[in-house]
Design goal:
The protein is of the alpha/beta class. It is 63% helix and 11% strand. β2 and β3 form a beta hairpin.
Length: 276
């Protein structure tokens, strides 16, 4: 039935596409097997789902589109994988690579959560070695650190009252987490409120100089991808549309209880956007 239906699929070369999104999803979760997803961001339409995410597999599909289509693309939103960037630079001479802001925030949140775990382990070790007097003090700190993951990582304006109270508690017992959380919220505000490229360069540069002590890994990543991150402020292009489509692809996979045959999965996905 899928093969019969697929005969009605139109030519899947994109028409008049200006903005492309490239991402990936796991074919089978936990097995390191990923497939690339190509999306027309303006039409919110799945263009292709490929059997892998290697440069060779993606390049083959892009080359099939032809130079006329590739030269017409103006922006490509990607995550922070250099392989995608290399392909865009090689095949789309007129396209600006835009690093997805949400992947940048994911990197920052990951570093914040790593520090949260480090603080918690440190206090637990101190409790084991402490005398009776100090033990009580460290246990109080541990209470503040417990169950603090989501209050720290979730957008502050989305926190419930209970989570806000927990956030205050963890800030009171950990000055480092307090500073890191505030820097996390500052860069989120930069992305949310900055409307032009020039202001974005200034604000992000200031953030980097002040947050380096607390976010060394994220700082290095942002510097490496600075031009692509700043490009977001031109048209505020993100991979949000791609993430929405990815969620639907995952739902298709779950509703089919998984697909052993990738071609059946590919056809099933494409039919959701291209069935005539």
């Amino acid at each position: 039935m899928l093969k019969d239906a697929s005969s009605e699929l139109p030519n899947l070369k994109p028409i008049n596409m200006k903005r492309l999104g490239i991402d990936e999803i796991a074919v089978k979760k936990g097995h390191g097997n990923y497939c690339a997803v190509l999306v027309d961001l303006e039409q919110s339409k799945l263009i292709a789902i490929l059997s892998g995410r290697t440069q060779e597999i993606i390049r083959e599909t892009l080359m099939e589109w032809g130079t006329e289509i590739l030269e017409n693309i103006e922006e490509v939103s990607i995550d922070l994988w250099s392989g995608y960037k290399t392909l865009v630079t090689e095949l789309m001479p007129n396209a600006q690579v835009v690093a997805d802001r949400f992947h940048v925030m994911t990197q920052i949140n990951k570093e914040l959560d790593t520090q949260r775990k480090r603080e918690k382990r440190k206090v637990e070790d101190l409790i084991k070695k402490a005398n009776t007097t100090d033990k009580s003090k460290y246990e109080e700190i541990l209470v503040g650190l417990k169950n603090s993951k989501y209050p720290l990582l979730k957008n502050e304006d989305k926190l419930t009252q209970e989570q806000l109270e927990k956030l205050i508690q963890v800030k009171n017992v950990s000055p480092i987490l307090k500073e890191m959380h505030e820097f996390k919220e500052k860069i989120r505000k930069i992305f949310n409120t900055t409307q032009d490229w020039y202001t974005g360069v200034f604000k992000l540069g200031m953030w980097l100089s002040r947050a380096k002590k607390y976010f060394p890994n994220s700082n290095n990543t942002i510097i490496r991808w600075y031009q692509e991150i700043i490009a977001y402020f031109d048209h505020r292009t993100t991979s949000g549309t791609v993430e929405g489509i990815n969620n639907k692809l995952k739902l298709i996979k779950r509703s089919g209880y998984g697909f052993k045959n990738f071609e059946n999965f590919r056809i099933r996905c494409l039919l959701n956007w291209h069935f005539v």
